[in-house]
């Protein structure tokens, strides 16, 4: 039997800076918490996780998971995942439904023999009004996931141009037989941030501080008139040799931030052989990185930057550097420290051939319980 976990959504209704699949349960992102929980049951021959294309690489850094590119819709993501399924039956669930009990799975497995798809449902206790008319609530059911389907009929059902919100509706539409089991209130779906209070199995994020460091150097270019450090130009009669604007301080800072997140390095995100980054303002690269790490569930606490230069003199610019980096990172200036030193005329820096920068960044997990 196979399991498909859908985790490619945009999380547009979650009302938080972080995507819901990346909120931390202790130290694990939600998608990994759910995947590991299912894997620990030792039921499935394969577990396939769908992901947004630009998140796959980072997801793969978390472990040896089978991850495929999702689509623009839930249905398209499911179709992509089904291309990799070889079993007769497939259980499909959303990572947003994180607190599924094992007994619910067992009910699904026990019921599938006489059906093409089996789904968990909940009865409605409130009065239901549809199109201004009161309808019989005993005829209304709330549909949950996971849903257990026969693979071949599910593949066939999803070939329709109609967009279905669950697998069973697609299967019934082509004449398939649907079975029902009693659902579980604890299997509440995480749609909005406030839904987390209805998910008792989720422990709040770890308070660990994550530290990363970065280092970069750039050689001087005598054909240019100024260098750029921390997003600020310094008129000095020379510039940096670089594919981008050469802001060695921001480049080191980006590597420090990525290091704290375990997200690789600046070259992986912005290759120096990619024409779109030729001459680019490094502040834009930092803003892209900040957006990415924020969506992945991290908050920047503070950064420390050491600029190593024999020339030009850095001291007159340190305050401007501090305030500009703070603005770019959306943190208080006191959380940005800028230091300057020389190499006492030793090495290429001492010979006034370039500048080196060391940066350190401390991050924490977004605390969904506190909303910050």
Please describe what this structure looks like.
- The chain has 11 helices and 19 strands.
- The chain is of the alpha/beta class.
- It folds into 2 domains: 2-198, Spore Coat Polysaccharide Biosynthesis Protein SpsA, Chain A (Alpha-Beta Complex), CATH 3.90.550; 210-365, 2-Layer Sandwich (60s Ribosomal Protein L30, Chain: A).
- Strands 1, 4, 5, 6, 7, 10, 11 and 12 form an 8-stranded mixed sheet that branches. Strands 16-13-19-17-18 form a 5-stranded mixed sheet.
- A hairpin with a 2-residue loop joins strand 2 (24-25) and strand 3.
- The chain is elongated and about 80 Å long.
- 39% of the residues are buried.
Summarize the entry for a quick read:
This protein has 372 residues and is α/β, with parallel strands linked by helices. The chain has helices at 30-39, 56-60, 74-82, 102-111, 151-157, 167-173, 248-261, 266-269, 282-295, 318-329, 347-350, and strands at residues 2-7, 24-25, 28-29, 46-51, 66-69, 89-94, 117-123, 128-130, 133-135, 141-143, 147-150, 178-182, 210-221, 226-229, 232-235, 239-240, 298-308, 336-341, 354-365. It folds into two domains: 2-198, Spore Coat Polysaccharide Biosynthesis Protein SpsA, Chain A (Alpha-Beta Complex); 210-365, 2-C-methyl-D-erythritol 2,4-cyclodiphosphate synthase (60s Ribosomal Protein L30, Chain: A), CATH 3.30.1330.50.
CATH structural architecture of the largest domain: Alpha-Beta Complex
Backbone CA Rg: 26 Å
Instruction: Give the N-to-C terminal Cα separation.
Output: 40 Å
SSE string: EEEHEHEHEHEEEEEHHEEEEEHHHEHEHE
Q: For the report, how would you describe the main beta sheet?
A: 8 strands, mixed
CATH class of the largest domain reads Alpha Beta
Mean pLDDT: 95
Residue fraction in strands: 25-35%
Q: How many domains?
A: 2
List unreliable stretches of 5+ residues. none
Q: Which structural class matches the secondary elements?
A: alpha/beta
CATH topology of the largest domain: Spore Coat Polysaccharide Biosynthesis Protein SpsA, Chain A
What do we call the CATH homologous superfamily of the largest domain? Answer: Spore Coat Polysaccharide Biosynthesis Protein SpsA, Chain A
Number of helices: 11
Described by the principal axes of the CA atoms, the overall outline is elongated
Tally of extended strands? 19
- Specify the helix fraction band: 25-40%
């Amino acid at each position: 039997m196979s399991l498909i976990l859908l985790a490619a959504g945009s999380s547009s209704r979650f009302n938080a800076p972080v995507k819901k699949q990346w909120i931390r349960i202790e130290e694990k992102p939600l998608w990994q918490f759910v995947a590991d929980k299912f894997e620990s049951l030792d039921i499935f021959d394969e577990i396939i996780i769908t992901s947004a294309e630009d998140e796959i690489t980072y997801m793969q850094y978390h472990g040896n998971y089978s991850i495929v590119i999702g689509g623009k819709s839930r249905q398209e993501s499911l179709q992509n995942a089904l291309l990799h399924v070889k079993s007769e039956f497939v259980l499909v669930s959303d990572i947003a439904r994180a607190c599924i009990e094992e007994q619910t799975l067992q009910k699904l497995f026990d019921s599938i023999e006489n059906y093409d798809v089996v789904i968990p449902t909940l009865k409605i206790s409130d009065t239901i009004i549809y199109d201004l008319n009161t309808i019989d609530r005993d005829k209304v059911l709330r549909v949950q996931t996971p849903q257990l389907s026969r693979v071949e009929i599910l593949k066939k059902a999803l070939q329709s141009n109609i967009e279905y919100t669950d697998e069973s509706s697609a299967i019934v539409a082509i004449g398939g037989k649907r079975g029902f089991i009693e659902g579980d209130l604890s299997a509440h779906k995480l749609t909005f941030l406030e839904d987390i209070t209805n998910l008792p199995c989720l422990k709040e994020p770890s308070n660990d501080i994550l530290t990363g460091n970065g280092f970069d150097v750039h050689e001087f270019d005598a054909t240019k008139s100024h260098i750029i450090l921390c997003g600020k130009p310094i008129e000095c009669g020379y510039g940096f040799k670089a594919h981008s604007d050469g802001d060695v301080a921001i480049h080191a800072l980006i590597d420090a931030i990525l290091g704290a997140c375990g997200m690789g390095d600046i070259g992986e995100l912005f290759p120096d052989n990619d024409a779109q980054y030729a001459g680019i303002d490094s502040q834009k690269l930092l803003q892209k990185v900040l957006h990415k790490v924020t969506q992945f569930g991290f908050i920047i606490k503070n950064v420390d930057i050491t600029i190593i230069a024999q020339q030009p003199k850095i001291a007159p610019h340190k305050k401007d550097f501090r305030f500009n980096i703070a603005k770019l990172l959306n943190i208080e200036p006191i959380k940005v420290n800028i230091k300057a030193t020389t190499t006492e005329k030793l090495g290429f820096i001492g010979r006034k051939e370039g500048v080196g920068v060391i940066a350190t960044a401390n991050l924490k997990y977004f605390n969904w319980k506190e909303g910050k």
